[in-house]
Amino acid sequence: MSFFELIHEDKNTGARAGIMHTDHGDIPTPVFMPVGTQASVKTLDQTDLLTLNPKIILANNYHLHLRPGEDLIAQAGGLHKFMHWDRPILTDSGGFQVFSLGIQKELKGQQGKLVKIGEDGVHFRSHIDGSDHLFTPESAIECQHKIGADIIMAFDECTPDGADLKYTKEAMERTHRWAVRCVEEHKKNTSYHGYRQFLFGIIQGANHEEFRQESAKYITGLDFDGIAIGGESIGYNMEATENILKWVMPFIPKDKPRYTMGVGLDPADLLKVVAGGADMFDCVAPTRLARHGMVFVSTKQDPKRRLNIKNSAFTKDFSPISEDCTCLTCKNYTRAYLHHLFNAQELSALRLATIHNIHFMLDLMRQAREAILEDRYAEFLKSY
RNA sequence: UCCGAGGUAGCGCAGCGGUAGCGCAGUUGGCUGUUAACCAAUUGGUCGUGGGUCCGAAUCCCACCCUCGGAG
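YS: structure for the whole thing
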């Protein structure tokens, strides 16, 4: 059986429904992947997760390499056993972290160059203790083998959109050379823990059509199991994201899953990239926003699709966050109670809001998939 | 009753001659392949009361009121 199975393409949009088969279970697409960077979806435990029923979650190679270290996770029998989650997991390679943490440190004006990019790989300093580390395409893959996620990512360089053409091109070409090395390294052992690991390549090229197309051609030409679209604007600047998808999609074979990295700040963003042909996406927003008191609601309830439950307007609002939501939070608690929990800084506030937001995203994708299978995705998109 | 300390934003405090600030709370924003239970902005005050000195007083002087210690 092939890794990815394309089930149906919507007749009026680029949206598609499929299934990814892994040794830890099947993943129906389109799929939203909750983020659990440090082997934990913040505020939830795996019992909560089973109730929410995501088909796959994310973790991060950068964070897990620094703490507790890939060798310890390997010793535990792999990430699934370590964190007691026997469903599919995807790890990001850490390319984005090296980039984003570097940017943050530079903005703070901290001393020294914290990230040094060379042909071989990236030298970076740990945000935890300042120690020196090196990620090469080979070491990033080896780390991910030991950690043992079902889907692992190529080590790439995420260039800022503001970078000049020359640098953007250099970085993209370096990402391409690294992609070849990632594929080579991965071939050495595609089942470190006894089950199959799938490798995804990442298209870069910032907001330049020619670069994006060149990158799409190059990355799809390599032996990757899936194709990701990365970059600073993806998920952040939705207009740019939609354009990039248009440029890139014609070059990606239909029999490979497509992953737009970091999309989901607004639930509606998921629907847009699905229309553009994406199958997978992850975003820290649903969980982070939840911890900050922002809960998702439908367009009918609020034009911005989210409520700040900490606002005084909810002090005496004894209705659930969303009337038609079936999550644990909405079934059992009121806005007023959530408001109170946030106000009183009770930890359960974070968990209950997180449960709601993740449920919201997963349910939205369930509806999207149904709509695709019935060729009414265009209407669904419009009605949202 | 005496002695001491003190009364400044809702609370805790700083300012001690040039017409008021900070923290918290309150209110409102912002969150990209998570260094984020985070970050940012912002509303609140005839400085206990009355008088005096001074060009000018939260700040110096006097009286009174109140609070908290200690003594009796």
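YS: worth flagging: Residues 107-112 of chain A have pLDDT under 50 and may be disordered.
IM: good catch. Also Chain A is about 40% helix and 15% strand.
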